Amino acid sequence: MEFDLEKTISILSQTPSTLAAMLNELPDEWLQKNEGGDSWCPINVISHLIHGEKTDWIERVKIILSDEKEKNFKTFDRAASIQSNGDKSIKELIAEFNYQRNQSLDYIKSLHLSDKDFLKTGVHPEFGEVTLKQLLATWAVHDLGHIAQISRVMAKQYTHEVGPWINYLSILTR
């Protein structure tokens, strides 16, 4: 599939409601378990998504579209998101994410971006030059990756409970 802003927005706009449907009514045990070590639980993922809305995606869009000569992106601090949301409930976190996401999408829509805009570039600290189109496509795939991550983390909580069916549950064996 080739990049299309409306298709991208269709994914980005659905992420908060998808996460709400997946997580809002679950007991904390589902929301606070991870895959071990420094891996993230669903609450950590939502916190990360909120942090990205506040500090990353739109800031990088603005840098790319600016008239500045230097278009260097700041390094994204993934760990900052884990500390930033304190004791908020999953409903509060998803509501905040929904609000922040709506603000972001309203901003993107207000830009009335053209095909020429999608080819404008910024400089990523690791990858070098990247286009606006690549950034926006990455944003949508980033959401999908975290939805899959949450599903995987939750599924793995029952790894030992599924017994012999584990052989048919690729989410537990990959």
UniProtKB/TrEMBL annotation:
UniProt name for this protein: DinB-like domain-containing protein
Gene3D superfamilies: dinb family like domain (1.20.120.450)
Transmembrane segments: none
Pfam families: DinB_2
SUPFAM superfamilies: DinB/YfiT-like putative metalloenzymes (SSF109854)
Organism superkingdom: Bacteria
InterPro entries: DinB-like, DinB/YfiT-like
Lineage: Bacteria, Pseudomonadati, Bacteroidota, Cytophagia, Cytophagales
Domain DinB-like as annotated: residue spans: 12-150
